[in-house]
Amino acid sequence: MTDMHIKFKPSRLLLLAAAALCAAGVQAQAVPKTVRLIVAYPAGGVSDVVARALGDRLAAQLGTTVIVDNRAGASGAIGMDAVAKAAPDGATLGFSAISPLVLSPHLGKLPFDPQKDIAPVASVMYSPVLLIATPASKAKDFRGLIADAKAQPGSVRWATSGPASLGHIVLEQVRAATGVDITHVPYKGGGQQLNDALGGQFEILSTNASPTLTSHIQSGKLRPLAVGAPARLDSLPQVPTLGELGYSAANINSLFGVFAPAATPPALLAKYNAEINKALASPELRAKLTATDNVPTGGTAAAFAKEIASEFESNGRIVKAANIKAD
């Protein structure tokens, strides 16, 4: 990939979001009878399950048909490109983590402009990052793991789903905070790394929560040492956040939301934001999220845009300081 040097202007996203909030004075515009929800991940995964549940709720609330269209690949960039290039008529929405907007631009050129071509509609959930000890590690807690790494530089092997993944970002922040020599073990995707974790091929794994991972934790095969999240998880109340442990910069997670083509009418953006927040308040959807250790968020489009702008600036500093390169 070629380097992409862009200056992200938070005001652009904030203006797009503010336009949606000011739509009270805009004549109401009907939601299309059929809405395509582009999901930037493969069918069957946790994010896909959540997106489909959200789509079902929106369909019921709006009296419309929501068709899920999986466009996986390039860490979500393929799906977001499809959203960016769709007609801005309210008939296309996207569901994705914010990484294609806040991380991917620092790693290479994108086929769309994350600042100009995408409008944030609403935050939906955050997916925590779990730091998991495997049978290869005897550390009882995260401090013990760092102590082992200090005692024997390079001996602690830390697996992630690949270079420039969120798990890799967490690792680099821990490295920066501790100054210890930790060996990065990058994988391509999550399936093989989980099998190798169970086999003790490395000491620690940083990965997003999932039902499969939860089952291995409950069986005692894997041990959670810390979590990247604003607060401890209800399902793992004994596991501290990285923030609690003193690693505030590493205490990050995957924020997911709904997006639209940038020129979508403000009245429709405001309508979708209100309906998504209504859906997130429903016990059924909240139960679907919490069952997979994902945490419902919601809120205004402007607040979502502000988070995106903040993450963009933060990731830029991390990528530059650690000299992180994409595959």
Mean pLDDT: 90
Distance between the termini: 8 Å
Molecular shape: globular
Strand order, sheet with most strands? 2-1-3-10-4-11
Series of secondary-structure elements, N-terminal to C-terminal: HEHEHEHEEHEHEHEHEEHHEH
Low-confidence stretches: 1-7, 22-27
How would you sum up the major sheet? 6 strands, mixed
Based on the coordinates given, report the CATH architecture of the largest domain. 3-Layer(aba) Sandwich
Rg (CA only): 20 Å
Structural class call reads alpha/beta
Number of domains as seen in the coordinates: 2
CATH class of the largest domain: Alpha Beta
Total number of helices: 11
Question: What report would you give on this structure?
Answer:
The protein has 327 residues and is of the alpha/beta class. Strand 1 (34-39), helix 2 and strand 2 (65-70) form a beta-alpha-beta unit. Helix 1 (10-21) crosses helix 9 (266-280), helix 1 (10-21) packs antiparallel against helix 11 and helix 2 (46-62) packs across helix 9. The chain has two domains: 10-127 and 254-322, Bordetella uptake gene, domain 1 (D-Maltodextrin-Binding Protein, domain 2), CATH 3.40.190; 129-250, Periplasmic binding protein-like II (D-Maltodextrin-Binding Protein, domain 2, 3-Layer(aba) Sandwich). The protein has eleven helices and eleven strands.
Descriptors:
D-Maltodextrin-Binding Protein, domain 2, 19% strand, 38% helix, alpha/beta, disordered N terminus, globular, 6-stranded mixed sheet, 327 residues, 11 helices, 2 domains
